[in-house]
Amino acid sequence: METVTKLFKNNIRQYGMIIALVVIMLLFEVLTSGLLLKPINITNLILQNSYILVLAIGMVLVIITGHIDLSVGSIAAFVGAVAAIMMVNWQLPAWLAVIASLLVGALIGAWQGFWIAYVRIPAFIVTLAGMLLFRGLTMIVLEGQSISPFPAGFQKISSGFLPDVQFSGMGLVSIIVGIALTIWYIVNELRERASQRKYGFEVVSQGLFLLKLIVVAAVTNLFTFVLASYAGIPNILVLLFVLIVVYSFVMNRTVMGRHVYALGGNEKAAGLSGVKTKKVTFWVFVNMGTLAAVSGLIFAARLNAATPRAGTNFELDAIAACFIGGASASGGIGTVFGAIIGGLVMGVLNNGMSLIGLGIDWQQGIKGLVLLLAVAFDIYNKNKRAA
Question: Entry's Pfam families (predicted)?
């Protein structure tokens, strides 16, 4: 019992948000008379929030380093506009336009990263300027009008599904993917547990470990079963899964990830320890620019149009997702998984409130209150540990 209590205390913010997500989902499932968890709505939740979740993955790295990026929504809009010009006006192949768009995003990130890392202008000021600059460039490039439609192949980024084989109204491939993911997760957890024991680290009891495996396996297979009963696994979910796995690995298992945490924890100490703080900051913003470009492409593909107002408030939703998911405003703390949970909390709130007919005024107010309470909870826990 002591180990369980210690585990929960050490991960109280992350576990708390998972519990909050489950409670919010159950609440809206009741309030919407079962509409929230219907297969079609679960799929819509993924499609509607995918571009925010992509931004949240990049934003959590920025926040961990102790910075903030207010420009990501404008960058997403600008990249979507550039992609539209290349694909619709210039008739370039979609794959070439996507690569060029990602390069544009990386260059924008490098531009902002240079001013922040090497000129030492605060990130708030640089990215605020970027928000205004790239919003203006979006309107100039589009000449105040929308450009559409995109090629069908490009639209499948957001609206397509993995090829599936139907049997009695169920997608067999989706179910097989769920089973494969369960096996991969169990094998990975068993290896991790064996490794921790080998080096003398404390591990949870066998009963609690088995319970964790059973719960995760059940949730994973239930989720893929729900998707299989509608249209299968969306292409965008595959992209999100890859990004989550890759960025979680980088942040938890690589030198670069350790340097990002060290920089956010104490920049001077990190520099004295040999961390190239300017270089790390620069590449974090290059990465953010690239993921903002990915988000812009996803949103453009979903709308099937590039519009001057695309990306509005994306940065606020991404930042909120990170803070709700456990990132610290002072830097050094945060996880990719936590940012995803935070993004899902915001997404379920948006979707659930829309389904029960709450107006946009109430929705904005409630989301603001949730964000405030999440940050207050973080500060309370910090003060409690410091006492």
Answer: BPD_transp_2 (PF02653)
CA separation, residue 157 to residues 88, 132, 211, 246, 355 (Å): 16, 28, 36, 19, 26
Interatomic CA distance for residues 21 and 15, integer angstroms = 10
The Cα-based distances of 146 to 80, 89, 156, 256 in angstroms read 11, 12, 20, 40
The reported pLDDT for the residue numbered 13 is: 62
Cβ-based burial of 38 (10 A; exposed 0-12, middle 13-18, buried ≥19)? middle
Distance CA 102, CA 153 (A): 17
- Indicate the residue type of 386: A
| pLDDT per position as a tens digit, 231-268 | 889 999 999 999 999 999 999 999 999 999 999 989 89
Phi, psi of 297, rounded to the nearest 5 degrees: -65, -40
| Residue 379 confidence (pLDDT) | 75
Q: Decide which of 112 and 204 is more confident.
A: 112
Query: Tokens in use for 85?
Result: 């010009």
- Burial bucket for residue 287 (CB in 10 Å: 0-12, 13-18, 19+): buried
Token pair 């096996």 is found at 183
For 202-224, what is the mean pLDDT? 87
d(CA 173, CA 263): 43
Indicate the angle between helix axes 235-253 and 277-303, nearest 10 degrees.
170
Tally the C-alpha atoms within 13 A of residue 278's C-alpha that lie toward its C-beta: 7
How far from 257 is each of 134, 251, 283, CA to CA, in Å?
A: 29, 4, 12
Backbone conformation region of residue 313, classed left if phi is above 0, alpha if psi is from -120 to 50, else beta = left
Instruction: Provide the pLDDT for residue 1.
Output: 54
Distance, C-alpha 361 to centroid of its chain: 25
**Which of 298-330 are b and which e, b meaning 16 or more Cβ less than 10 Å from the residue's Cβ?**
bbbbbbbbbbbebbeebbbbbbbbbbbbbbbee
How far apart, in Å, are the Cα atoms of 28 and each of 94, 110, 179, 356, 357?
39, 42, 28, 8, 12
